[in-house]
Design goal:
4 copies of one chain form a homotetramer.
Chain A: E1 6-13, H1 17-32, E2 37-45, H2 49-59, E3 63-65, H3 68-73, E4 79-82, H4 89-98, E5 102-105, H5 113-125, E6 130-132, H6 140-150, E7 157-165, H7 182-185, H8 189-205, E8 209-217, E9 222-224, E10 242-244, E11 250-257, E12 262-268, E13 277-284, E14 287-292, E15 298-303, E16 312-316, H9 339-352, H10 362-380, E17 386-387
Parallel strand pairs in A: 1-2, 1-4, 2-3, 4-5, 5-6, 7-12
Antiparallel strand pairs in A: 7-13, 8-11, 9-10, 11-12, 13-14, 14-15, 15-16
Amino acid sequence: MTTTTSPLRIALIGTGFMGRMHTHAWRTAPRFFDLPLTPEPTLLVGHRPDATAEAAARWEWPEHTVDWREAVERDDIDVIDICTPGQTHAEIALAALAAGKHVLCEKPLANSVAEAEEMTDAASRAGSVAMCGFSYRRTPALTLARELIAAGRVGEIRHVRAQYLQDWLSDPDAPHTWRLDRDRAGSGALGDIGAHSIDTAQWLTGQDITGVSATLRTFVTSRPRRGEVEGLGGVAADTSDRLPVTVDDAAAFTAHFDGGALGVFEATRLATGRRNANRIEINGDRGAIAFDFERMNELEVYDAAADVAQGFRRVQVTEAQHPYAGAWWPVGHGLGYEHLFTHQAVDFVRAVAGEIPVSPTFADATQVQRVLAAVEQSAAHDSILTTVATAAAPEHPLEGNPS
Amino acid sequence: MTTTTSPLRIALIGTGFMGRMHTHAWRTAPRFFDLPLTPEPTLLVGHRPDATAEAAARWEWPEHTVDWREAVERDDIDVIDICTPGQTHAEIALAALAAGKHVLCEKPLANSVAEAEEMTDAASRAGSVAMCGFSYRRTPALTLARELIAAGRVGEIRHVRAQYLQDWLSDPDAPHTWRLDRDRAGSGALGDIGAHSIDTAQWLTGQDITGVSATLRTFVTSRPRRGEVEGLGGVAADTSDRLPVTVDDAAAFTAHFDGGALGVFEATRLATGRRNANRIEINGDRGAIAFDFERMNELEVYDAAADVAQGFRRVQVTEAQHPYAGAWWPVGHGLGYEHLFTHQAVDFVRAVAGEIPVSPTFADATQVQRVLAAVEQSAAHDSILTTVATAAAPEHPLEGNPS
Amino acid sequence: MTTTTSPLRIALIGTGFMGRMHTHAWRTAPRFFDLPLTPEPTLLVGHRPDATAEAAARWEWPEHTVDWREAVERDDIDVIDICTPGQTHAEIALAALAAGKHVLCEKPLANSVAEAEEMTDAASRAGSVAMCGFSYRRTPALTLARELIAAGRVGEIRHVRAQYLQDWLSDPDAPHTWRLDRDRAGSGALGDIGAHSIDTAQWLTGQDITGVSATLRTFVTSRPRRGEVEGLGGVAADTSDRLPVTVDDAAAFTAHFDGGALGVFEATRLATGRRNANRIEINGDRGAIAFDFERMNELEVYDAAADVAQGFRRVQVTEAQHPYAGAWWPVGHGLGYEHLFTHQAVDFVRAVAGEIPVSPTFADATQVQRVLAAVEQSAAHDSILTTVATAAAPEHPLEGNPS
Amino acid sequence: MTTTTSPLRIALIGTGFMGRMHTHAWRTAPRFFDLPLTPEPTLLVGHRPDATAEAAARWEWPEHTVDWREAVERDDIDVIDICTPGQTHAEIALAALAAGKHVLCEKPLANSVAEAEEMTDAASRAGSVAMCGFSYRRTPALTLARELIAAGRVGEIRHVRAQYLQDWLSDPDAPHTWRLDRDRAGSGALGDIGAHSIDTAQWLTGQDITGVSATLRTFVTSRPRRGEVEGLGGVAADTSDRLPVTVDDAAAFTAHFDGGALGVFEATRLATGRRNANRIEINGDRGAIAFDFERMNELEVYDAAADVAQGFRRVQVTEAQHPYAGAWWPVGHGLGYEHLFTHQAVDFVRAVAGEIPVSPTFADATQVQRVLAAVEQSAAHDSILTTVATAAAPEHPLEGNPS
C-alpha cells in the first residue's frame, strides 16, 4: 500500500525557479508513481526571511529557515536538495555528505573542476546517495534513445551532433542579467546550456570526451541595464546605460570521444528563431537517433537494415512500454518540461532505496566540468586557428599557419 | 522571337554523369526560358571512341571527338563546358580562355590552390565568361535566401550552421571507389560535399572565411574491392580483399567569417539515415533562414519582428515571384535536382550576353579552395586539440594542452 | 499575498483517471498562478469504500465518502467537481445547482440532448458557475488560435478541417472494453473524441454547426473478452471468446456552419500510426491556422498578406505573451496534457470570482450534443448515400440514386 | 544499343502547358531510360497557325499543322497524344483508335460518363494502347505506396483520407478564368483536382468507390474580369466588372469502397496557405502510408508490428531500388513535377512494346468519371442533410430530418 511506505524527509535549499520546480516534483512523484519511500517536503531554506516565508506558504512547506546549516544538522532530515547558485554548491554538499545526508545537487555541480572533484571524492566516501540534476536525462525520448543505443540498434557510433540553440539574447538591446556577468555566472551559453549537451552526449553514447577544439564568441559586448522600475522590475529603462557582457554568447567545438566518435557541438543564445532547440543526433553503422527538445515527446529513430521503406521514424515516446510514460497519460498525450524533474525525484527516491543506480553521479558531473574547462582553455588559444590564405599572398598559398 | 536569337555553340568535354546532366540542361533551358542566345550542342568530347560515339548518339550531339584540343581550336565553338575529373580542369580551361572561349568548369575548379589561382588570373585577363559549376547556387530556395539576406531581412549575421550529411558509405562493406583514393579524388567528404557548403555559406552571407579549426576523420580505413563481375560490375565480390581508404570520411570545422559571423561546418558520408542533407542555417539579429536540400523546394524563414505569432515559415519556393520558379510549373509543383543545372545554363547564357554578372567566378571558386586547403592544414595539426583532463591526474585539472 | 485569498472548497466525485487529473490540477493551479480564490480539496467522493479511502490517502484529500449527496448537502463545500460516467452527470449536477453549488462537469455533459437541455436550463436559472470540461479549449495553442481568429487574422472562414485520429483499436484482437458497449458508453469514436473536435471547431470559429451528412462505421464487430487474470487484469486471455462491439469505430461527416463555413470531420480509433492526432485546420480569406495535439505546443499560422516569403509559421506557443504560458517555464520548454486541466481549474476559479466568463457553458456543451445527435441520425439513413453507377448498367449512367 | 531501337512516331495535339510538358517528356525519356522503342516527336497539331508554328520551332517539332485529322490519317504516325480541352477528347480519341493509333489522352478522359464509356468500348475493341494521363500514378512515392499495399504491408484497409488543397482562388478578387465557367470547365475543384484524388485512391487500394455522400460549395460567386491590358494580359483591371463563378470552389464527400474501406475526400482551391497539398493517407490493420505532393519525394510509412520504436518513417523515395528513381540521380537528390510526365512517357512506350500493362486504362478513367457524376448528383440533393436541432425547439430535439 503506497501510503504506508516510510517517509523520506526533504530539506530544499533555494526559493527561486528551481526551488519551485523541485517542490512540484517532490509532491507530484508519489501521486503518479509507486515509490518505495514517500518524499515528504519538510523544511524550506531561503535567503531572505520574508521571501522564504512567502514561498513556504505558497508551496506548502511546513517549516522554513534562512540557515542552511540547520537543515544539515537536523536529524529528522534525510535529503538535502540544493537549488542555490553554483558557487555555493560545494560547501553545502560537502557538509551534507559529511552529515550522512542524501544529496541532490542542481547543475552545474560546482564552479570549478577542483571543487567538483572534491565533491566527487566526498560522495565516493559517503554511504548516501549523491546525484546531480542534469534533468534532461529524464526525458523519456532520451532515455529511450539510450536504451536503443545500449541494445545495439545504432551500432558502432561515428557521429555525435549536438546543438543547443536559444534566441532570448538575439536582440542586442535585451537587458543585462546576472547570467551575463562572468563573476556571478561563471560561464555563458557554454556552461548554461552547452553543459547539458555534453552530459547528454556522454551519457547516451557511454563514451567520454577526451579532447576538444573550441571557439567562444561574444557577439553583443554590452547590454542595457535592466530598469529597476518600482513594482515592475524587468524591462530595460535606458538603452544608453549599458553594462559589459563578460561571458560567451556562443560556443562551438569539435570533440573526440574515447570510443572513437566524432562530436560537433554548438551552444548559443543568439540563434534567432530557435527557442529551446536542445538537439542531438547520433549516427552509427546500424542506425541513428535524433532528438530536439522543442518536440520533447518525439524521438527520431533510423534503422539501417535493408528494406524498401527505410527512413527516420517519428516515435511518439508516450506508450506504456516507454520509459516513465506508463505512469502518465494515454498514448499520444504528451508530457512537459516539469516531468523531467518529477522523473528525477522518482529516480532519486529509487536510488535511495537501492532499487536503481545513481545517475548522474557526482563523478559524471565532474567529467562534464572537465570538458567545459578544456573548452575554455582551447578557446583561449585563438592563435591555434589556421588562417585562410589570401589572394594578396598567392606565392605561398598552402603555407602559413601563423601561430 | 526565341527562335531567331543567335546560337551559342557548345562543346562539352566529358561523357559521365555530369556530361549527361549538362546536355540535358543545355537542351531544356531554351524550352522554358526566353534566352538572349540559343545554346546549340555542337561537339561532344569523350575519352574512349566507342563510349563517346554512343553518348553522342543517345544524347543527340551532332559531332563527337576524343581530342579536347579540337574543341578549343575550332572557330565555330563559343563555349567550352568542362565536365572532366578535377586534375584536368586547369589545362583545358587555360587553353580555352587563351583561345577566347567562354568557359563553364565543373567544381572543384582545380585540385590545388595554385592551379586555381592561375585559372583565376587567366579568367581576369580574358574577355570571355568563366564560371564554375557550384550548382547549388541555382536552387530557387537558396537564391531566395540570398535575396532576403541582401535585403536585410536577416540583419547582422551571427551564426552560419552548415551540414552536408550523406550515408552511402556508412556500411563498412560498401565497396571501394575512386572517390576513396586520395591520388584520384584529392579529398573525401571535405572536397566532395563540404566544398558546396563552403561556397554556399560565403555566397549567401557575402562574407569570406578567414580562419578555421578543423578535424578530418576516416572511420572505415579499408573497403572491399568492387567486384568486376562480367556484365554486372558494381557489387562487392569478396569482402576479404580490401583496399585502403586514403581520404576523409568526415570533416568538421569551426570558421570565422570576415564580417564577424561564426561558422560550424560538418561534412560526412557516414551520417546514417541522411541521404543528402545539404543543410544551412543562418541567424542574424533580425531574422534567420534555414534550408535542407532533402526538401529543396522549401525555405524556412524567420522574422524576429514583434508579433504574437512568430516562428519559422515554411516557404514553398515555387511561386511565380520566386527566383527561376516563374518559368516552370504552377505554384506548389516542385522542381528536382536537374533544374539546378538548367538554371546554371540559363545564367551562363545570360552572363555571356552581358545581362547578369558571372556567379560564381573563378575567383569565388578559388576562395573555396583556399578554405579547403586551410581545413586540411588545420586538421594535420591534431596536436592542437586541447585534451580533457582525466580523473587520474586531478592535481592539475586545468592544465595540459600538450601542443 | 496569495496565501491570504479566500478558500474555494472542492468536493470531487469520481476516483478514476479523471479524478486524479482534477486533483492534480486543483493542487497545481495555485502554485503557478495568482488566483483570486484558493482551491481547497476538501472531500473526495467515490463508489467503493476501500478504493475511495486509498485514493483519498494517496491524493491527500482530508475527507472522503461514498455518498455524493453528502457533498451536495454540506454547507462548507463550494464546488462540485463531477468526474463520474456520463449517465450520472445530470442527476448530480441538477442537485448541486439546486443547492447553489458551483459545478464543473466532465464531458460529455450528459448522455442525451434532453438531459443536457435540462441541465442548461438549471444552469441558466442558478446564480452559480456551471462549466463543462472540454479541456482542449485550454491548450495554449488553441487559445491563441481563437484570439488570432477573433482578431481577424484568418478573415472570413471558409474551411474547417477537423480530424481526431487514434489507433489503439486498430488491432482486431485488442480486448473489449466498456467503451465498446453502447449501453455503457453511449457512443464510440464519435462521442469520445469526435465531440472534442465539434466543440473546438464551434468555439474557434464562433459558428454553430447547423447541418451534417454523416457515416458511422464499425470495422471490428467483435473483440476478445479482456482476461481477468488474477493480479494482472488487462490482457486478453482467449481470443475465441469474443464480445460484440456495439458502437462506432469511426465517424465521418461533412458539416455546414451558420457563418458559412464548410466542415469536414473525421474521428476514428483505427487510424494506424496516429496516436492522438487531434487536428484542426481553419482557412479564411486572410490566413489560416493548423493544429495537431501530437505537437500540442505548436500552432501553425499562415498570413495571406503579400510577401515574397509566406508560408505556415511554426509558432511555439510557449512565450510569456501567449495564453497561460507566462505562468510556466522559459520559452521553448513545453507543456503536457495535464496543463489543460490546470488551466481549466484556473479559469474555473476566475469565473467563480467573476473575473472571466464561463467557457464552455452548459449551453455550449448542449450544442455539441445536438450535433452528435444529428450525426447519429444522419448516419442511420445510409440509403441517402448516392451510389456510383456501374459499368453493368451503362445505359443510365447518370441516374440511379435508389433512396 | 539504345540508338538502334525502332522509332515510335508521335503526333501531339495541343500547344498549351500540357503540350510543352509532353514534348519535354518524350524527349527526356530516352535520355535517361533504356526504352524498347524510341519516341520520335514528329508532328505538332495546334489551333492557330502562328502559335503552332512558333511552338513547333521552340520545341523543335519537325512538322506542324492545325488539322488534327491529318495526324490521325497519316500512316507514319504511331501515337496520338491528346493535350486539348476535355470536350474534344472523345472525338479525337475515337478517330485515332479507329485508325489503329496508340492513344495517350490527358485527363479528364471526357466531359461526360457517356462519352467516357464510348471511348472505353472503343479502346477495348482496338488492338492499340489507350492510356489516360492521370500522371500522379507516376510519382515514385505513390508507386512505392501501391507496391507496399499490394505486398500486404498495410493489411486490410479501413481508412482512405484524401485531400487536395490549393489556395490560388482564396483571394475573392483573384481574376476570373475559363476554369470558373461551367460551360467550358465542366466542373471546378472537384473535376480539376478531386479527380486526381479519386483515381489515386482507387488505384492505391485496388478498391472501387461504390457510394458517396457529397457537398459542393462556391464561396466566391463572382470574380473580376481579367484585364486585357495590351502586352501584359493577366492582371485584373477593374474589380467592379465581375463575372459569375458557375463551378464549385470546393468539394467534400465521404465514400464507401467495394473492399470495405471508408473514404473522406476534400478538394478545394481556397485552402489558404496550401499551395498544392495533394495528400492521401491509408490506414490498414498492419500499417499505414501517408503522402503529400508538396513533399513529392517522400512517403511516410508506418508498420504496426510490435517494436519499442514504431512511428511513421519518412522514406525518401530516391533510392536505386525505388520505382523510376534508379534512372535518375544519386539518392537524396529529388525529382520534380515534370518527372511524372517523363515516367508516363516511359510507361506508355513500354506498354506499346507489350512489356507492361496499360495503366490507367480508359476503363479506369471512366470509373473516376462515374464517381464524379455521383458526387455531383449527391450534392444536388442538399435536402438530404440532417439539420441540427436548435434550442428554440427543445421539445423535439431528436427529430427533424426533413428527407
